[in-house]
Specification:
Number of domains: 2
Shape: globular
Structural class: alpha/beta
Distance between the termini: 16 Å
Helix content: 40-55%
CATH class of the largest domain: Alpha Beta
Number of helices: 11
Mean pLDDT: 95
Low-confidence stretches: none
Strand order of the largest sheet: 2-1-3-4
CATH topology of the largest domain: Rossmann fold
Oligomer: single chain
Largest sheet: 4 strands, parallel
Number of strands: 8
Length: about 260
């Protein structure tokens, strides 16, 4: 029976961070799926079009990838999301996968990084190990992407767990709540003077490079400095962390095992 593993991420147009994050996660998963052919898809149409036009690089969206797998005669497909939360992008992916459930003998989708409570614990531990290798001062400010989806509660939940584990972390978002204004208020309430600014995103892409660390006056770095904080920037996406890579790999393996159990 022809079997495939399809790894799906939002994507990025930055080659270096893609190599360090998306491709690193893909390789970890690929190594654990002996007997499965590997495929990749991005959910961002904007990034897909940009890579095609700029680099002549062709990447499928999830529907295109699944259609190709169906036409090529695959019977079992494991799909692993590299999304951070169970937000809008992940739920769109679930809807796409649901349209193909009757076309494959076995098909299932692995969960995002933050799904179950144990996933949050594993993520905090993975990030803690990474922070141990950084020169961290008083507090860490994480920039998450954010969402209007009901899963926006993932961000304050992970902050609560960071603090419960002794990490002085403040989590804000670019497109959701809390925003940088709420983060600054709480930093001042806690008399913080120096912050380490880190993306809480899979890749250190456009949001991290421009919205977080850019020199424009509306970047988080500029805003924090204007408010009197000393800021150290760490342009390192979560996907660079080998322990985070292992989490995605384990989620994919869980997904595969569930398919095997169903067939017994």
């Amino acid at each position: 029976m022809k079997k495939a593993i399809l790894v799906v991420s939002f994507g990025t147009s930055y080659h270096e961070t893609r190599r360090k994050t998306i491709e690193a996660c893909e390789n970890k998963i690929k190594e654990s799926f002996e007997g499965y052919d590997f495929y990749r898809a991005f959910t961002s149409r904007m990034i897909i079009n940009k890579l095609k036009k700029r680099d002549n690089m062709f990447i499928d969206n999830p529907s295109e990838a699944l259609e190709k797998l169906y036409n090529d005669g695959y019977k079992e497909v494991v799909i692993q999301s590299l999304h951070i939360i169970c937000g809008e992008e992940y739920n769109k992916l679930k809807d796409m996968v649901a349209e193909y459930e009757d076309k494959f003998e076995k098909i299932s989708i692995g969960r995002p990084l933050l799904t179950f409570i144990d996933d949050y614990r594993d993520t905090v531990e993975a990030v803690r190990k990474d922070l141990d290798n950084m020169d961290i001062d008083e507090a860490v400010v994480f920039m998450g992407h954010g969402t209007e989806h009901e899963s926006h509660a993932s961000y304050p939940a992970i902050e609560y767990m960071f603090r419960d584990c002794g990490i002085n972390a403040f989590v804000g978002t670019v497109e959701g709540y809390p925003e940088i204004e709420q983060v600054i208020k709480r930093l001042k309430d806690n008399n913080i003077k120096t912050v380490d600014l880190i993306p809480f995103m899979l890749v250190a892409g456009d949001h991290a490079i421009n919205d977080m660390a850019g020199e424009d006056e509306d970047s988080w770095k500029s805003i924090l400095e204007k408010e009197g904080f000393k800021v150290k920037v760490h342009l390192k996406g979560l996907g660079e962390n080998p322990y985070i890579q292992d989490q995605f790999k384990n989620h994919a393996i869980d997904c595969m095992k569930e398919l095997q159990e169903v067939s017994i």
